[in-house]
């Protein structure tokens, strides 16, 4: 068999079932996370788990259902409404770590998947403000200097 279709990473690690298990395990962690849980607008995390599962499956060469239902991923843009600071990122990654471990992949598959998830999570950070600091202090950097209005300059 020389002309067999190349096997996707999606298929190599077990296809649909693996991605469903990954997303389900991840959201079990999110459900108990005091910082991440309130970010999710819906009471039920099931639809969010399904979106993540469809996205990851598509990314790794599986069915393109995500784009059919949600359009272009534009993940940075879709996360802009959420306060994704380094703490949120690290929590996201910690739950993902547990979920990936539960899959018991081969070391190479595990490393490939994890490398991607880590890079993607770092790319999703959109603020360095600590959680809980809202619009009242928006526009100030860590030193407390206003970034939206300049002090009067005495020329
Ligand atoms: C870094 C920390 C992250 C936080 C705090 C975070 C949080 C969120 C929240 C609150 C939502 C909205 C719930 C929903 O409507 O599905 C969401 C959606 C989503 N996130 Fe994340 N996320 C993070 C990183 C990532 C990463 C690294 C990926 C991909 C590898 C990802 C993939 C998605 C997808 C596919 C959706 C659904 C987008 C849609 O179709 O509307 N997220 N995320």
UniProtKB/TrEMBL annotation:
| Ranges in coiled-coil conformation | none
* The protein's name in its UniProt record: Globin
Q: What Gene3D superfamilies does the annotation carry? A: Globins (1.10.490.10)
Q: Name one Pfam family in it.
A: Bac_globin
In residue numbers, the region (Disordered) covers 133-155
**PANTHER family attached here?**
TWO-ON-TWO HEMOGLOBIN-3
Give the record's family classification: Belongs to the truncated hemoglobin family. Group II subfamily.
Q: Supply the alphabetized keyword list.
A: Heme, Iron, Metal-binding, Transport
């Amino acid at each position: 068999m020389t002309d067999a279709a190349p096997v996707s990473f999606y298929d190599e690690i077990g296809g649909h079932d693996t991605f469903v298990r990954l997303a389900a395990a991840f959201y079990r962690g999110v459900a108990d996370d005091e910082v991440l849980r309130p970010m999710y607008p819906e009471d039920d995390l099931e639809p969010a788990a399904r979106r993540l599962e469809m996205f990851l499956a598509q990314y790794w060469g599986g069915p393109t259902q995500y784009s059919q239902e949600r359009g272009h991923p534009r993940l940075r843009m879709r996360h802009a409404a959420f306060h994704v600071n380094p703490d949120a990122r690290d929590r996201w990654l910690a739950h993902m770590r547990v979920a990936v471990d539960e899959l018991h992949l081969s070391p190479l598959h595990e490393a490939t998947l994890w490398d991607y998830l880590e890079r993607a999570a770092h790319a999703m950070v959109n603020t360095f403000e600590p959680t809980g600091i809202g619009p009242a202090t928006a526009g100030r950097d860590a030193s407390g200097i206003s970034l939206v209005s300049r002090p009067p300059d005495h020329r």
